[in-house]
Amino acid sequence: MTRPTPETLAHTARRARAAADPSLDVDQAGTRTATPAVPAVRPTAAAQVSGAGSLVRSLEALGVDVVFGIPGGAILPAYDPLYDSTVRHILVRHEQGAGHAATGYAQATGKVGVCIATSGPGATNLVTPIADAYMDSVAMVAITGQVARPSIGTDAFQEADIQGITLPITKHNFLVQNAEEIPQVLAEAFHLASSGRPGPVLVDIPKDVLQAPTTFSWPPTLDLPGYRPTLHPHGKQIREAARLMAGARRPVLYVGGGVLKAGATDGLRRLAELTGIPVVTTLMALGAFPDSHQQHLGMPGMHGTVAAVYGLQKADLIVALGARFDDRVTGKLDSFAPDAAVVHADIDPAEIGKNRHVDVPIVGDAKHVIDELIAAVTVERSAGRTADLGDWWTQLDDLRNRYPLGYDEPADGTLSPQYVIKRLGEIVGPDAIFVAGVGQHQMWASQFISYEKPYTWLNSGGLGTMGYAVPAAMGAKVGKPDTVVWAVDGDGCFQMTNQELATCALEGIPVKIAVINNGNLGMVRQWQTLFYNERYSNTELGTHKHRIPDFVKLAEALGCVGLRCENAADVDKTIAAAMEINDAPVVIDFVVGKDAMVWPMVAAGTSNDEIMFARGVRPVFDEDDI
Fold first, then answer.
1. What is d(CA 450, CA 287) in angstroms, rounded to the nearest whole number?
2. What are φ and ψ of residue 116, in 5° steps?
3. Choice among 111, 207, 422, 512 that is catalytic
4. Options 157, 236, 273, 553, the catalytic residue
5. Residue segments in the chain with a per-residue pLDDT below the cut of 70
6. d(CA 358, CA 369)
7. Is 50 helix (H, G, I), strand (E, B) or coil?
8. Crossing angle for the helix pair 500-507 and 469-479, to the nearest 10 degrees
């Protein structure tokens, strides 16, 4: 059959999404403005189908436009009706690629990402991307085949208890017991994945259930007793938070990824500008508040800016919005922000008080929380109660001026990775989507690219999954075909999932990959330099010394355009050349120095008070001023 073009798919998807779900307001770019819900569609007449047919029809009714997967024995019945479906199936080269592609698609579009795998090893290959999505609260539905019901528990060929395996890393999971319940289970899975705190949901379907005859009708009735996420915060808690904000001398807005999940970025900017409070955005929240905004201190945490780290550390009030006080932000927890009162707003009540004592807990969707905080702060201001933040800003501006983000050029004359990434961001511009792998290049991409718009930065934050970037970029590009998508990857990460470039080449998905090739597992090498007396045990990859693999030749073998850049004079023209190619994936092998490090740094397990601005350089602070 004729495959629709990416542009047609995108246009159809946007129209279907807006028509199917009245709770969403989708503009021409597909921008989310509300939490997705199960589409409300016209009822369909009952039809006699197989369980597999019911599965595919349910996906169609749910507005799914694309799934990423690989067929296999147990899931094979589903692939027959999928052949004639309006749902596009993208055949990946590894199930891990399917899962990360579904995640990248979901993060870029705000829709639910869908991946499909067969039983046993197919399903277990999804475990890493499922765990990744769980840690980063990504709306994903993973559909797996299972051996026939009579064989479950017999150690049958390609049997694995994927429901039990994924129980700790899914928001919920299902083992479908009969074909009649497939529409209800799928509708519930999508509702659970996309509402409240988003997360991955697994649906495991035995082969005989897929083959069984059944009747399909839509919509089903959801039966989720006890699942009622709190969206609107308690008014008393909002008023108390506003009172604290009006009286604080050193407040900070600590913004996490939940603000992006809730589509609350416009409200965040209004709240920040209304109060004048400094803003820090976590690794998962980059783009939620413009990097260039005067009130933005940068990213906090292990490799955050000095101003952001010390702003939190010396605050007298922290207003946490959709953030979870994870260890990479807090450093040594018992020394974190010792003088700060804490307002913690999150849609997941389990996060509040989990790591840090909270003075004002607020359970609710970040968009509603922020909107109501704006109203309450406005009341405080009208009564003449406003915070004087002049001294606080004087201190923070001094820190920003004395300790800006920067880097030293390599002494051996090799290409600086920071320079490459900085120029990439400047040349490509703020409208592109940047997807990072995990390691030094991830931190440099978070530091030296300016994120001015939401949903333009995708990365694996909580799990730190090497191999995330290439398939996630593929998924993002499928979801946003009119947007330029760059993956910034390391030579280590790239070798884990680069086979998905074959998928991109064959499916017409022109992603662009910047491989920051330092010949090593860079972040591990940095730790060996700093903490293991420069004993470089098993971190050299051979991509420099032996050029194995040759990334240009590898790219060409995978159907991509391969380029190489080894000196600063060629960086701009190499990036420009890649930007001119839009009919094939592009891989640039940026051969950079091996000794560059990520700074600033708070060593693991130490206090944020011990932040290092550079190797051997600790910031100097006047304690009387802070």
1. 8
2. -135, 135
3. 207
4. 157
5. 1-43, 622-626
6. 16
7. strand
8. 20
